[in-house]
Structures are given as structure tokens and as C-alpha cells.
Target: Flagellar synthesis regulator FleN
Amino acid sequence: MSDQAARLRQKITGLNSQYHAKTIAIVSGKGGVGKSNIALNFSLALANEGKKVLLFDLDIGMGNIDILLGKSSRYSIINMFENNLSIYDIIESGPNSLSYIAGGSGQDHIFYLDEERVNFFIEQLELLLTKYDYIIFDMGAGVTRETIHYILAVDECMLVTTPELHP
Ligand SMILES: Nc1ncnc2c1ncn2[C@@H]1O[C@H](COP(=O)(O)OP(=O)(O)OP(=O)(O)O)[C@@H](O)[C@H]1O
Ligand SMILES: [Mg+2]
Model:
């Protein structure tokens, strides 16, 4: 697992001389704290300033970025793996020239990002790094064996919390 994270980090940060996207993951411990809304509004604000932004819904199988946008997506990241599509095939267009990739929902089976899929994902992601100013990852709540790769590899994490009231 640490190998994969290291390799992903190397891919994301290793294009030293070339210009490449700043990568930011929106993360939280608890669910329902507002990550997806912040990810979307932050992405739209950057796009409004003329930045090329890709919002990547990595809450795979529980994605809601397309719902928040009021759009229905043709494809999600799940289709990239299951229908052998390239990452370019699954990029959708939102407002303000925002690009996004839906996380997929309503699956009738549990989707696993196994090692083979992570490797394919890394290759595909690398293709995008020189195409955008920002790539924002909307993550699922908490940390799992799957999401730790991305959290360790991105340039920055934005941790979203809400106050917990004690009686
Ligand atoms: N700033 C806010 N003020 C009040 N309500 C908010 C705010 N941001 C989000 N919400 C509401 O909180 C709920 C959860 O928001 P959101 O889906 O963005 O959270 P999330 O952290 O992405 O959840 P999940 O962990 O399920 O992915 C939604 O009903 C949303 O409308
Ligand atoms: Mg969310």
C-alpha cells in the first residue's frame, strides 16, 4: 500500500520541470460535514477566476457532485474501470467551464479499487496533470485503505470539520 502511495505521489509531484496542476483533496473524519459542497463551490470560484479546474468526485459509488450540479452524467469513474474507457471519456462539463468527473451511485455491487485499478488510475491521472491548473478531489468521509493513497499523494488536503456541541 505504501508503495502505491509513494508511486502516486511521485507521479503527481514528479513532473519537476513541467507545469502541472495543483492537486487538493477535500477530506474529513465525519460524514456529512459539507465536503462536497465546499469542493464544488471552491472549484466554481477558481473556474470563475479563469482557472482550468477539474473536480474529481472520489466518493466512489456514493458520489453526489453531479446531483449538486443538477446534472446527470453519462459516465462516472466506475465506467472508466468497468467499460475500459479512458479518463478523457468520462470528463463532463459543468458551469463556468468547470470540468468534473462523477463518482457514480446506485451500483448493484460493491466497487473495489484494487491494485490493478489503482495502477490504471495513476496512469490515467498522469495524463491530466498538465491539462489543468487545479485538480480538486472530493473524497468520501474518513480514511480507508483505498483513499489513503490520494490523501498522501496530493499537494494539499483541506480538512472540513463542524463544531460538536457538548451538553
Ligand atoms: N455551509 C453549510 N451550511 C449548512 N448546511 C450545509 C453546509 N454545507 C453543506 N450543508 C448541508 O450538509 C449536508 C451534507 O453536505 P455535503 O454532501 O456537502 O457533505 P459531505 O461532507 O460531502 O458528506 P459525505 O460525507 O456524505 O460525502 C447537505 O444536506 C448540505 O446541504
Ligand atoms: Mg460528499
